[in-house]
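So, can you check this record?

>
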Amino acid sequence: MQPVRYSGLSEDEVSAVRSVARGLSYFARERVYGYVDRIANAFSVTTLRQVLTEFLRDLKSEQDRGADVFMPSAKDVETFLRIAERDLSIAKVVASLALAYSWTPRKEQEEVPEEQEGGGK
């Protein structure tokens, strides 16, 4: 099986990856890096599923407490998991994006211009 390339993902798949990363960025913004690290370093899809379950549960708890958080949709989580089943390295992409989104103003997270996707200053 060939590795999954971010540039080779469909529009829906890219949207799902970004959605999960946006949710995860809440914890990076709060300097709670455990979920980011555990997702980046997941050694199996089973481990990734467990961490995602914990992260989503805690994100929902934060939302219930009134925190301004972005909740990825169930469809986006399912799509992300399907990609991860093909190539677990996509989890590192989600973790990297979450870190980048954590220091980017929320409006910029909505739509990243093409020229900025390849790198930045």
